Amino acid sequence: MPDRIEQAKRALRADLRERRQTVSAHAREVAEAGVKEQLDALVDRIGARSISCFLSTPTEPGTHAFVSGAVARGIRVLLPITREDGLLDWSVATPDTEITEGMFGLPEPVGDVLGPIAVNDVDLLVIPAAAVDHRGMRLGWGRGYFDKTLGSMERCPPVYAVIFDSEFVDDVPRDVHDQPVTGVVTPTRTVAIAAPTS
Length: 198
Fold this sequence. Notes:
198 residues; alpha/beta; Rossmann fold; 7-stranded mixed β-sheet; 3-stranded mixed β-sheet; 12 strands; metal ion binding; FTHF_cligase
């Protein structure tokens, strides 16, 4: 059974990755502006003073403008740094944070490194995803960093995944370790997802 789920995930990721490659430079600029507008409004609605946010790759809906703007507004922004043990360290974004290529070629900050538990103090987590379904199940890129982070948090604040509009789908394949999100942010809207009732 897990093999079938993993194969379905791999196929869906490959399709989504291919689609992201075809997005034009202009569409990316528009998407980044839209994501910034949606995330700014979400931060204001929640009243978040401390957040975590990933630094987008060139094919993801852009988060760099949002991070810069949040820092300029005095919001504490933790940026993730991948570790070989599958956990995330964190670094506080500054107006002149230097960005380097981390593990897997991901953009990561250069700065003082805080351990994995630093994220326990944030009011909002903004995380990447390949797709999210209407129940809040998130399909990541297969490395498990954010699933581990969310699964280990004592008190998890709202978690929003940033995706393109077409990646908010009816259903994604899920495994036991996959963690749901509270909502999604796309370039055109923010959708809160109700927690499933047991």
